[in-house]
Please model this.
Amino acid sequence: MLLSAVSCTQQQKQFLISGTTQGSYFRIAYIALNEDTLLISKVNALLHTFDNTFSLWNDSSMLVRVNRNENVNVSPLFTDLFEKSQIMSERTNGYFDITVKPLVSLYGFAAEKRSKNFFSEEEINNILRYVGYSRVRIKNGCVEKDLPQIHLDFNAIAQGYCSDLVAEILLENGYKNFLIDIGGEIVASGKKPNGEIWKIGIEKPAATASDKQSTITEVPLTDCSIVTSGNYRKYFEIDGKRFSHTINPHTGRPASDGILSATVVASAGWEADALATAIACMDKDTAIAYIDRNNISCMIIYDSLQNMCVWQSEQFNNNKFNVK
Model:
């Protein structure tokens, strides 16, 4: 009886799995009585598979081989994320689009060296011939393109999707209280060891890429995902004008219409990731109308006459996160 009473009073603690993946960091906090080495192995195996499937910097990854137009039978993992991406392209009227890769390369946000002579309408229109989610599909296990120059880039949805897959591993292994952060794409479940709900800080947009991080607010989060897409850390300047890494697939130009960041809360990481990217591509008025029309839990921070302004949807403002 005494031994039983002692075992029942054992306190669960927070354990951390961390490292680098997909060109960024990952941190996974899970609540347990003891560290789970088998769980760590499963998570690392998933991250390794994910890199071998979707990395643009791994010359032998499945995605790179697809972009080289090799004869590749894509995996169920690749197919699932491709189909989710196409769903989000439809939902966002093409503001989210995985065929944006040729534009990413043109502006030098991929591995290619940036050119300083790419702003002519002729050059952009030439590249736009290879952009458009309706120009690519999967048939009989292979990626079919309308043109061989069409290249795919999953970076605006992959980390959110990966966070979801890690969450599935944790749940399948009996863990209900955890926080997953893969490059800023976050999935939360349950609570912290002290019973409090997880709180996620939203970064205040910085004036320059080198500025220290600071938070503008904190959001309580459980059993859902949160992702912020920002236009203020990754950019370049030419003649004093700043160009964001977020590229509008419709115009072929970097987003430059005032939205500094878009934070979305949704039931799935892949959904929040894609929505945040799409909204960050829009102008402010289009974004607000889209968010309201689709009942999205979102906060946007935008620049108005060099003043930082914050707008929140009703769902976000009331912590009604529109989750299942």
